[in-house]
């Protein structure tokens, strides 16, 4: 069986699954499609194609938000991802 993305020779990052990168405790990057649901200096809620992400911390700021993704900076305390269909 050949996967569609392999057959089309597409890179893995072109899938609907977001790539979330935590750099130390100071930066979170969510690559791929996302929608900012809520923002405060203490928390950010983001809708992902297959669920939601919840970032908590202090002094959080949005450094970049465009079609490629979302970059948050500040004192990151936690990153929680809930996939659709999973309970809290």
From TrEMBL:
Top-level taxonomic group: Bacteria
InterPro entries for the chain: Spore_YabP/YqfC (IPR022476)
Pfam families: YabP
Protein name: Sporulation protein YqfC
